[in-house]
Amino acid sequence: MFTTGEKPAEQIANKDFDLAVYLKEKQQIVEDALEKSLPIAEPQKIFHAMRYSLLAGGKRLRPILCLASCELIGGNLEIALPTACALEMIHTMSLIHDDLPAMDNDDYRRGKLTNHKVYGENIAILAGDGLLSFAFEHVGVETKNVPAQRVLEVITRLGRTVGATGLVGGQVLDLESEGESDITVESLTAIHTRKTGALLETSVLSGAILAGASSEDINRLSVYSQNIGLAFQIVDDILDITATKEELGKTAGKDLQAEKATYPKLLGIEASKQQAQQMIDKAIDQLSVYGQKAQALRAIAYYVVDRKN
Ligand code: GRG
C-alpha cells in the first residue's frame, strides 16, 4: 500500500481534506446538540453537575466518529446526532467515575476541576449515573427517521459496551493490574480493548448501523475501529509520559505514579509508537473500498497517532 516516499497512497489521496476544518465543524454541531440535550430541571443541583462535565470541552472524538461513519454509509447527520450525543454522555460519565477518589483520584479533567472536586463525591457518582441513564433515553426519544430495528441494535450495543464485558470490566481489570509486575502485552491489550477500544468501536459502528450498513461494512469498520481504539490508548499512555499537564488538561505522569502497566512501560516509547502506527495502517487498509468517501475516517486515523492531547 506504500507508493511514494513514506506516505501511504491513501494519505496522498487525502491531501485535499482539511481535518482541522472538519473537526471544528463537527465539534460545533456536537457542542450545540449537547447544550440543547440536557436543560436544567429539578433537582437543579444534579443537572448542573451533569452539565458541568458534559459541556467541559474535550475532543468529542466519539460523536465525531459516529457522525463520520454514518455519512460514509450514506446517512445524514440528523439520524446519528442523538446517538453521537449519547456516546459523549457515556464517555463523560466514565471520566467522572474514573476520576473519583475510589478510582484514579484525579483533581483535574479537561483543564477544569473534576466533578467530585466541585460537587462532592456523592453528587459526582449520581451525575455519572444520571448521564448514563439519560444517554439511553436520549437515543430512544430523539432518534427519528430510522427503522426501529436499527435503533434497537444501537441501544443493545451501547449496553454491552458499557457493561461488564466493556468499560466496567476493563476498569476492573485495570484496577486489579495496579502494582502488578508481571502484566503481559496480551493482558494489557485485553484491558484497553474493553476500557477504551469498546466505546470507540461502538462509536464507529453505531453511526454505520443507523445509516443501514451491510454486514461487510460492519466487518470492515470493526477492524478499522478496533485498531484505532488500541492505537488511541497506546498514544494515551505515551502522552501521559511526554505531555504536560497543560496539554493534557489533567495531571500528567499518573500511570507511573500508580505503577500502572502501560505500553511504553512494557515496550518502550519508540516500539509503542511503531505499534500504534502499524495499527493505524491496518485500520486504513479497511477503508480502501470506500475511496474518497472515507476521507474523514482516514484522516481521523492519522490524527489518533499524531495528536498532542
Ligand atoms: C461505564 C458504568 C460505567 C462506569 C465507568 C470508570 C469506568 C467505569 C471506566 C473507565 C473508562 C475510562 C476513563 C477509559 C479511558 C478512556 C480514555 C482514553 C479517555 C480519554 O479520552 P479522550 O482523550 O478525552 O478522548 P476527551 O476529554 O478529549 O474527551
Question: Brief description of this entry?
Answer:
The chain is built from 16 helices and 2 strands. With 309 residues, the chain is mostly helical.
Main-sheet strand order equals: 1-2
The amount of beta strand, in percent, is under 5%
Q: What is the β-strand count?
A: 2
Global shape: globular
What is the alpha-carbon Rg in Å?
Answer: 19 Å
Q: What is the terminal-to-terminal distance?
A: 29 Å
Q: What number of structural domains do the residues give?
A: 1
Description:
The N terminus is likely disordered. 44% of the residues are buried. Helix 2 packs across helix 5, helix 4 packs antiparallel against helix 5 and helix 10 crosses helix 11. The chain is built from 16 helices and two strands. It is globular, with a radius of gyration of 19 Å. Strand 1 and strand 2 form a beta hairpin. The two termini are 29 Å apart. The chain is 71% helix and 1% strand. The protein has 309 residues and is mainly α. Strands 1-2 form a two-stranded antiparallel ribbon. The chain has one domain: Farnesyl Diphosphate Synthase (Orthogonal Bundle). The structure holds geranylgeranyl diphosphate.
Question: What is the topological layout?
Answer:
Layout: H1 9-13, H2 19-37, H3 44-54, H4 61-72, H5 77-98, E1 108-109, E2 112-113, H6 115-119, H7 121-142, H8 148-162, H9 167-177, H10 185-210, H11 215-242, H12 245-248, H13 254-257, H14 263-267, H15 269-285, H16 295-306
Antiparallel strand pairs: 1-2
Helix pairs in contact: 2-5, 3-7, 4-5, 4-10, 5-7, 5-10, 8-10, 9-10, 10-11, 11-15, 11-16, 15-16
Bound molecules: geranylgeranyl diphosphate.
